[in-house]
Amino acid sequence: MLTVSVKWQKKVFEGIEIDPTLPPYVFKAQLYDLTGVPPERQKIMVKGGLLKDDADWSAIGVKDGQKLMMMGTADEIVKAPEKAIVFAEDLPEEEQATHLGYSAGLVNLGNTCYMNSTVQCLKSVPELKSALSNYALTGRSNDVDQTSHMLTVATRELFGDLDRSVNAVSPTQFWMTLRKKFPQFSQLQNGMHMQQDAEECWTQLLYTLSQSLKAPASSEDSDAVKALFGVNLRSRVHCQESGEESSETESVYSLKCHISHEVNHLHEGLKHGLKGELEKTSPALGRTALYLKESLIDSLPSYLTVQFVRFFWKRETNQKAKILRKVDYPLELDIFDLCSEDLRKKLEAPRQKLRDEEGKKLGLQPKSSSKDSDVKMTDAEASSNESGESSTVTQQEGASSEKGTLHMTGIYDLVSVLTHKGRSADSGHYVAWVKQESGKWIQYDDSHPSLQREEDITKLSGGGDWHMAYIIMYKARLVSM
Amino acid sequence: MAPGPDPNSVGDGAKRDEATTKVPSKDPKKKDDKKEEDLSEEDLQLKQNLELYVERVQDPNPELQKAALESMRQEIRASTSSMTSVPKPLKFLRPHYGTLKEFHKNMAESDLKKLLADILSVLALTMSAEGERESLGYRLTGSEGDIGSWGHEYVRNLAGEIAEEYTVRQGEESSIEDLMDLVQQIVAFHMKHNAETEAVDLLMDVEDLDLLLEHVDRTNFRRTCNYLTSAAKYLPGPDDMLVLDIAYMIYIKFEEYPNALQIALFLDNMQYVKQVFTSCTDLLRKKQFCYMISRHGITFELDPEMVENDVDREMLQDIVNNTKLSEGYLTLARDIEVMEAKTPEDIYKAHLLDGRASSGPSADSARQNLAATFVNAFVNAGFGQDKLMTVPSDSTSGSAGNWLFKNKEHGKTSAAASLGMILLWDVDAGLTHLDKYFHTNDNPIIAGALLGVGIVNCGIKNDCDPALALLGEYIDKEDSSVRIGAIMGLGIAYAGSQNDQIKSSLSPILNDAKAPLDVIAFAALSLGMIYVGSCNEEVAQSIIFALMDRSEAELGEALTRFLPLGLGLLYLGKQESVEATAEVSKTFNEKIRKYCDMTLLSCAYAGTGNVLKVQDLLAQCGEHLEKGDNHQGPAVLGLAMVAMSEELGLDMAIRSLERVLQYGEQNVRRAVPLALGLLCISNPKVTVMDTLSRLSHDTDSEVAMSAIISLGLIGAGTNNARIAGMLRNLSSYYYKDASLLFCVRIAQGLVHMGKGLLTLSPFHSERLLLSPTALAGIVTLLHACLDMKSIILGKYHYVLYFLVLAMQPRMMLTVDENLKPISVPVRVGQAVDVVGQAGRPKTITGFQTHSTPVLLAAGERAELATDKYIPLSPILEGFIILKENPDYREE
């Protein structure tokens, strides 16, 4: 009989007897009583390895009073979870893309950053995307020429590719058709394609799209692009000499922000841009006279585009020079005071509503004095408004939801910024900064998208050699009534 | 160069005082600038006297001669104690030096001639032309009087001339006996007068350090030994060994055993270690020795000769075996109140980054989870608890299981092994936790469990050899991941043990034609670790054969680099011993030949500071080679390995690397950050930090990756806020690049390793000793980092666990005579170099007073702030046993 002590975890069991004539399994059974570890899971360290069930005690050479060490637990054996864990690395590419929360960048094909950034900015308009996807391959109406059709298709394909891909997309097809449609973009310099003005690209592209996306049949809401971007201006043309006055309306796709010495803020620039002088023949005077033109906004678009008029033709240097002046722009733009009287009236109610809602969000009670009758309604609607608010994301959704119709408020939120860095329009570098649906800002520097902070976006206002906003796009804040 | 107190100085001082009180304006210093005509009356008098003496010396009357010589001697002796200005008698005698010399030549042999020779010898101090050694020449022909009486400066000059003369005579192979008599005198003089350093210098010059033993006494042996040990770093071999031998003998002579042990360990001389044990009779002090040996990380068996009593021996062996390390570490952790487990998120501190990383991805990324596994393992290393792996599995599937399965395939290996890291040094609890993973049928998990067992046992020895018993079973399993787990586990658990049983089971794998390359690579590496610095022929042979058997294609694989590395580790720090093997390596396939050559060279001279080797390696780095040559990486690492031992060489290496970075090829540049990381491991120098920070944004992603890992290495275990901030910014900068982000995460884990209680520095005992196993662990990781993409970012990320070999608590824990922790006040401050300083200079500066246990940062030193206790080791690091001071009186 040998007496040994066995150390197990932190415990030591003294004086365990071993009968050398019996196999070690018996010893293990003894330990099972003491520790509760089943013999098959006991690992007992002896000289030269583990103690085998059928080993011979004499061969192992256990001495009297020796300390043995046992390892083993009665714990449950770990099992793999039934549902296998899916790792991001295993996902197909498309899902990885959604996973990132933003889409891919565009490869620079040689001075095509003006085009890349334009495409990225426009792509951030979901309505445009859906309009494009409705554009049937064969649905080319006769009044659209072949090249426009091809460009439209190419745009649609490119948008699709961007959504699907994780890695940067090469917009070769799009570029080809763009150059076919607008040969001015094919200018060469030293055998390279020249840098172009992004604003020109933007305008031309939108114009083409508006032409081809015009629904041929239905008369109202015929022009999808116009509905999205078009701004109706009502202008009063006034001649001071003759006192003549006339009014005209026009539709533009973007507002201009003129930059002069007094302009420090977008709002001032816009006001400036809506006033103009023009010379035309005065029927009363019978000669050309100076007319003052004052425009006001008559109808609001879903997406308000503002172009900073930063470039002007400098005769001395024979190039488009750039105004580096810093012009601040807000993340939230209110253009109420640029609107015409009629429009203002229309906007009043939705704006009140919006204020109330925001007040409620901040924990303030809507002022009952403002609209006695409305108190109940707002309360009743409050609960349902949660869905209404979320539905303001896209117009279509909002329209299809049954919670009344959505109304413009004249308040806009910044969604994308196209910046330029450099000293002239035909050189330097264009970059797009786009707000994602998740609320994150992404900088699309050709093929490199990168996350940005919102507070840095307003710092692109110029005044140095850093990227400065050239075209910015606001999205209307809607409210359901 | 202030002369020490001198027997002459008293009389001299008195005399000068007299002079200055008489004529205050006649300051001797100012005096020298003036022309001769401006001589004061007194000086004029002196000058005339001396001229008279010179004349009289040449007088035929011996009586007059003698009187003149005596007077002259008197004048000179009274003034030669200081050399801030030329003593006046010497100055006035200058014009007569030639005359006297001439006269001396013609003099008949007599006492007077000797007397004149003495004087001439002193005069030669200022007169003799460089290299003539006239002072020495006249000294040897002069009377054999007390040389000290001529003043300190004279002796010093004489010592210099002796050294020159010695080299000349060595060249001529003529006798040096007469010189040695003089040396005896000079050494005795120096040792008596606080000029130990000069005595040592002289003896080193004349290659007779043994003389020192006769002259040291209780008052000066410490300074002597201190100088010897620090001088050893700058001496070429084998002189350095000789110097340390002497230091060892002096320490033994004065029963300063802890220091003697330190040197014995430095020399890696087990005979000396044994002698320390046999010479010392105090059991308590032996315990302290055991703590020192355990910190060094070598395997050491006590035998009855060293400790007679069986019970005592067992207790001491327990200390050597590090079985109490976990307990001490946890005591420290509780005292500092950092027991609370930390999650990887606590380390990433994503909330401090603005908006970018805030919205985490919805799906689990295997790469990021793997990074979190490592971070969790490093941060909670040794604490025995964490929030991912050890959480009790009470719910249905258990969260531990959950986290494990959030890692993919080979990632599960690292996850299971991380348990070993969390329960580091606590063998009992570790094995209990790991046990359940042995029973799955998921091979990567079993591999991880095996590796975990190895990690838990790292640096801990146990009579039952649980690691060997458990892992031995799996070495020859079918699945190669399981085999690697077992082999690597053995390598970690038995590093430095030279265990024959493991050798006999691992060696066959090396030469097994059927074994896959990765298994062979890890087997070679593990053998290298187990036999680190042993120069074991047999193992070397096996690895060499394994290397020769590799096909051309296999030699190109990333993992093949572990074969030469394993070979190199065998010779770690063994200098010339590597030469035979290096010769053999020249016959290898050219693909691996140079790589092997560089690895062997750098390992063999690791930690020696050998300047010639540094130059060799630098020359290699400077070459611009064709693509495909990969030996420059190890050359750059080698540079750091060789130069890392002492501060001067280290700074020079950092500067050279800066050049290499600018002019080197890309493959050299990639290794530079790693070399910097090694040089400053766990020692975040600001300059290096800045360099690495710059490189972490390098356009070459591999340079950036190594720089990031190195940032982690230099900050390892320091919680350095600056590095933590840099890494946090890098994590947002590289948030899209999964590989770089992985590196950033690993680095973050390293910086917060052990919540700041650990260090990776292989140096300890005031930077004197280099733990071979620790260095082996770091070097292995660095070699793996040379090809980051295929090893760490591939499926062999668990090589990161090799760092465990270098992980040690950077603590100072005081224990009483029963080895129970006690708290005493200590001062912790920046260490000051006191080598060669007279008196009892302050050893630390800018200190703060804490109570033990305390953390020691790189370059810090502690000293007891109370007289109540006496520490049993002068080097206050790790475990320190305190004895009550019998002379202590409560105030």
From TrEMBL, chain A:
Its EC number is 3.4.19.12. It comes from Raphanus sativus (Radish). Interacts with calmodulin (CaM). Residues 380-391 have a biased composition (Low complexity). Residues 350-361, 369-379 have a biased composition (Basic and acidic residues). Gene3D superfamilies: Cysteine proteinases (3.90.70.10), Phosphatidylinositol 3-kinase Catalytic Subunit, Chain A, domain 1 (3.10.20.90). Residues 392-402 have a biased composition (Polar residues). Recognizes and hydrolyzes the peptide bond at the C-terminal Gly of ubiquitin. Involved in the processing of poly-ubiquitin precursors as well as that of ubiquitinated proteins. The gene is LOC108809924. This is Ubiquitin carboxyl-terminal hydrolase. It comes from the Eukaryota. It catalyses: Thiol-dependent hydrolysis of ester, thioester, amide, peptide and isopeptide bonds formed by the C-terminal Gly of ubiquitin (a 76-residue protein attached to proteins as an intracellular targeting signal). Residues 2-71 form the Ubiquitin-like domain. One of its GO terms (biological process) is regulation of proteasomal protein catabolic process. It holds the Pfam family UCH. Residues 104-477 form the USP domain. Residues 350-402 are annotated as: Disordered.
TrEMBL record, chain B:
Residues 1-45 are annotated as: Disordered. Residues 50-352 form the RPN1 N-terminal domain. Residues 13-37 have a biased composition (Basic and acidic residues). Pfam families: PC_rep, RPN1_C, RPN1_RPN2_N. It comes from the Eukaryota. Keywords: Proteasome, Repeat, Ubl conjugation. Acts as a regulatory subunit of the 26 proteasome which is involved in the ATP-dependent degradation of ubiquitinated proteins. This is 26S proteasome non-ATPase regulatory subunit 2 homolog. It comes from Raphanus sativus (Radish). The lineage of its organism: Eukaryota, Viridiplantae, Streptophyta, Embryophyta, Tracheophyta. The gene is LOC108855051.
